[in-house]
């Protein structure tokens, strides 16, 4: 349930990196797993670089939860500063 005093969505961008993407279907699996999380606005996976960009509300979904969602899809990843 939404709280009444929450006036604005606070979205941040987190970058994860994975070295375990072997084919383009990995991209779809990870984007789907992240997209299912409440609080994720957008998830974009770059196959060539293994870069995973996620726009999310940190109050609803933490960086650790993002890493966990990628792991649930079958891939190890780490939060990256760029
Ligand atoms: Cu694949």
Break the fold down into its secondary structure elements and pairings:
Blueprint: E1 12-17, H1 24-35, E2 40-46, E3 51-56, H2 63-73, E4 78-80
Antiparallel strand pairs: 1-3, 1-4, 2-3
Helix pairs in contact: 1-2
The protein binds copper (II) ion.
Question: What does it look like?
Answer:
By secondary structure, this protein is of the alpha+beta class. It has a single domain, classed as Alpha-Beta Plaits (2-Layer Sandwich). The protein contains 2 helices and 4 strands, in the order βαββαβ. The protein has a 4-stranded antiparallel sheet with strand order 2-3-1-4. Helix 1 (24-35) packs across helix 2. It is globular, with a radius of gyration of 13 Å. The model has no long low-confidence stretch (mean pLDDT 92). The chain binds copper (II) ion. Copper (II) ion is lined by residues 22-23, 25-26.
List keywords for this structure.
82 residues; alpha+beta; Alpha-Beta Plaits; four-stranded antiparallel β-sheet; 2 helices; 28% helix; globular; binds copper (II) ion
Summarize this, please?
The chain is an alpha+beta fold. The protein has a single domain, classed as Alpha-Beta Plaits (2-Layer Sandwich).
Bound molecules: copper (II) ion
Instruction: Give the spatial strand order of the biggest sheet.
Output: 2-3-1-4
CATH level-3 fold name: Alpha-Beta Plaits
Strand content range: 25-35%
Mean pLDDT: 92
What's the total number of strands? 4
Shape: globular
H/E element order:
EHEEHE
Radius of gyration: 13 Å
The first-level CATH class name: Alpha Beta
Number of domains: 1
Provide the structure class. alpha+beta
Which spans of ≥5 residues are poorly predicted at pLDDT below 50?
Answer: none
